[in-house]
Structure formats: structure tokens, C-alpha cells
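Homework help board

Subject: predicted structure for assignment chain

Our instructor gave us this sequence and asked us to write out the predicted structure in C-alpha cell form, then describe one feature. I got the C-alpha cells but I'm not sure how to describe them. Can anyone check?
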Amino acid sequence: MSITILGIESSCDDTSAAIIKDYKILANIIANQSVHKHYGGVVPELASRAHQQNIIPVIDHALKTANISKNGLDAVAFTRGPGLLGSLLVGTSFAKAFSLSMDIPMIEVDHMKAHILAHFIKENASSKVPNFPFLCLTVSGGHTQIVRVDDPYNFETIGETIDDAAGEAFDKAAKILGLPYPGGPEIDKHAQLGDPEKFSFAKPRIPELNYSFSGLKTSILYFVRDMLKVNENFIIENKHDLCASIQHTIVDILIKKLIRASKLTSIKEIAIAGGVSANSSLRSYLNDLKQKMDWNLYIPKFEYTTDNAAMIAMAGYFKFIKNDFATQDIFPYARKP
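My C-alpha cell output:
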């Protein structure tokens, strides 16, 4: 029997709804919030208000795109956390009400695990998915982790950032250079035209498989500040090279730890996930390493890298199989307990 699930994602500033039928996504609708560009970052209160405006139209659009009646749904899956609490409350509250009104179970999903499980979405019969166990480098604006995945229900974080995430480093570096928000794609765009070896920045020496990006941000800030004292046009004249060098440094930090994790675990099934997995340099580095390291590499489609409900629905599908349902007294969490 086929399983059809409505997925809802509202962890940050994108309102998204998706319909999945078994492993196939029938609809994946996302409403973005452009208002945050004026503030250089996400404003939590504005984000939660926009979710309230967007959630019903987005879900309605997803149902119509999938050509599915709400009566044809078997469950509703939603992001419980981590994320912005006000935004998460909108999605959680809707899921509770929808579950009650339609008399279908609801499934709570961890946002970071969903990013990883997005690799199991099948576009067609020949779609390749990771073999267990595999390692996943999960990189976003709020998280940087290396996760060992033994099956769809067992995840072990074997490395993570002790302070800032890689995505935040991209955004803060972009702000220093005067680039618009979100900074990651802007740096990536300019880096295509620059020399990644032109400038060097401090790289952290963090033990084991953990990361740190706070020192790198400080290094970039002080370097640019000192160069501007000598030449007030330094950023304008060197924008492409600065972006390329910053991107090269961040990606190099990420890759070296991933290589070490692969060697320590003897796992050659390697995946990436999260918003930063859309970065062209990271993808290029990994593709170059694939043959050298004898890796089976899994890189998600661009539409499954940013926050989206397709990954929530996919994670919900696995939980549905296990009858792992949430109760009405559940509440969202901003950080993983």
C-alpha cells in the first residue's frame, strides 16, 4: 500500500510544503521571505509573522500541484526543531490542528536529520541512494556536523562545530566585504572570478573531528581592516580574490576533517547536506577527491540543499513505517535537547 504524507518546514524564514508518495516527491513548494535582506539577516519576529501568512496558501498550492486531496493524506510531518522558536510554532501548531481535523497521525522531524535523509528521495527508478553506513557532512548557516548514519533511524554525530557554523562564516565574511544577504551565494558568485590562493587566513587547530570558525571570522575582519588603512579601495579592487580566498579556506577546513573521518571510520560512502552543500567550490573539491579517496559520493540536487519540506516528508515516511507518531502535547525546540 502506498503512503502519502504532507511535509511542513518552517524552521527559519522559508515556508515550505511538500507531498511525498512513498519515495517520490509529488510537490515541493517554497515561499521565501525577501524582507530580511533589508536587515542583513533573519529577523525572528518578522519570520514568524510571514509563516502565518504563507502556510495555508503554500500547503494548498502543494496539494493542487500533487493533484492530491487532503483526504488522500495518510499523515502530516512537520519540523519540530532546531530553528527559530516562533517560526517552528507556526508549523507545529498547524500540524496539530490538521492532524486533529483530518484524523491522521502527525510525525515530528528533526531538521538536521531531514537534511541527511533527503538523499533517499527518488527522482526516478535509477536514482542512487547512499549505502549504510555512510558519513554525511551537514553544513548550513546554523550547523556544521559530520554524522555517521547506520540506518534511517540511527545517527551519530562524530564531529561538530564548537562555536560558529560554516554558513555563518560565509555570511559574516560577506558582511565584512559589504555584500548583500544571504552572503554565501554572493561569495560563491564572486569567487568564480578570483584567485583562491591570493590571500591566506588563519585556520583553527581543533582536535579530533570538531570544527571552529570564530577565529577565521576574526582573521578575515582584522585582515580587511588593516588593508583598508593602507588602501581605502582595497575591497573594491580585490573583491573577487577575497571571495575566492575566503571560500577556499572554509572549504579546505571542511574537507580535511571529512577526509580524516573517512579514514578513522573506514567508511567510503560520503554524502553532503545542508544549505552550504550548494556551494560550487565544495562540490568541485569533493568531485576531485572522489576518485583519489575511492569514495562513493552523494551530492543532493540544489532544490534539496536549502530548507525545504520535501526532506521533512522523506524523513516522515521512514518514521511512518515504524509507526513513530507524535502526540498533541508535543512542543518545538530551538536547540536539540
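Reply (TA_rk): Your C-alpha cells look well-formed. For the description, you could write something like this. Residues 123 and 311 are 13 Å apart (CA to CA). That's the kind of observation they're looking for.
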